[in-house]
Amino acid sequence: MLMRVPRQATDQPIDAVAELPLSEVLSGLSYALDMTEGQPRGHAERSCLIGMRLAGALGLDDASRSSLFYALLLKDAGCSSNAARVAALFGADDAMVKSSRRLTDTSSTSQALLHVLRTAGTGGSLLARGHHVGAVLRSGRSGARSLIELRCERGAAVARAIGLDEVTARAILDVDEHWDGGGYPTGISGDDISLAGRVLCLAQTAEVFWQHGGPDAACEIARRRRRTWFDPTLVDALVALEEDSDFWQSLDFPEVTPLEPPARVLVADSDRLDRVAHAFASIVDAKSPYTAQHSERVAALADALAALAGIDDRVRATLHRAALLHDIGKLGVSSRILDKPGPLDPGEWEAVRRHPQWSLEILARVGAFADMARIAAAHHERLDGSGYYRGLTGEHLDQPSRILAVADVAEALSADRPYRRALDPDEVLSILRPDANRRLDQEVLAALEHVLAARSSTTIG
Ligand SMILES: [Fe+2]
Ligand SMILES: [Fe+2]
Hints:
With 461 residues, the chain is mainly α. It has 21 helices and two strands.
């Protein structure tokens, strides 16, 4: 079956993404990790500036600085993997729990208890708060260890999937280990913690305290936790910068690409871009147990529809990456909302409606991703203007955007959700058929019927 290609809704051609620096791609996408971690945008980039300055003070060679550079940008790549568990255990917004934990000295029993009392069951009844406080306290150190272990292992796996080296992966595994052995997940100490991991631990903590109190707060927390959390040599290097106002001002508008060692610049060619897109799709899908394969499945379905439409390879590659990353803005939505087993209240619904806008804002940070960002951001738009987040109408929605919209809703209906079971292909099609040429593109829906029928016959056969 051959589908007629509707005219492009924009006059602009789809950009060809040529080779570009990997640092530009990952620093752009690091905003998504900041949002999941409950940090203001730019946290990873500012941590990178601090960490690379420490690397300079230590006189690290190019290879070590390259590994550290990417570890600093990707240190939170595993953060979505424990979001649902954190939200369920604490009965609270996972990003809020995580961001307040970053300001807590978790090695102090009284501070750790205060953090639990302040965050567990937030917004719930007294009974619910009591339940969640009890649950967190019962989970104890082993519960914390398992949450951090999952996060660190997933983060290291993302670095490996992108093709980064073992020094980078190991640094991400060690990001929450402490100099005195009181950290997680393994409790190793001193020089047994990788040097890059020690830099990550200090850089990210200094950045968080810098947000709240500038250079004084960053250096004060480093001094206070010297030899407990942090390597004393690294603390000395950081506090030596206390009066360097140019350095601290550079955190206001962080520029990380110039910090990559010039002799070790990594390039994102087409293959590497695909690896990055798949890796970040896995980060998005890990955010909720209900979306475990969503991005990958949407991308496969969109690609099948694009193939049937005879779309050229360049546009098809852009659509495939856009489909992998279309929900990257969901990393900024609380898991409490995404996994809620009932109807959303107006405030929660508003947070969900914002995720395509966040997808746009994250992807558009990479200049060469302009088309990918535009297509991804339109996945909930509908031809009659009833979609979100901009209420675009048909004349603004080009063929790749129409394909992604159909692939997204078809895959979502085909998967379990907190409030309903997965629907079979006939049920999916019977729900979507009335939308033909009203909300969804008729020809793309016709292609969907063909693809789902082909899949069913393959499965049965
Ligand atoms: Fe979405
Ligand atoms: Fe989606």
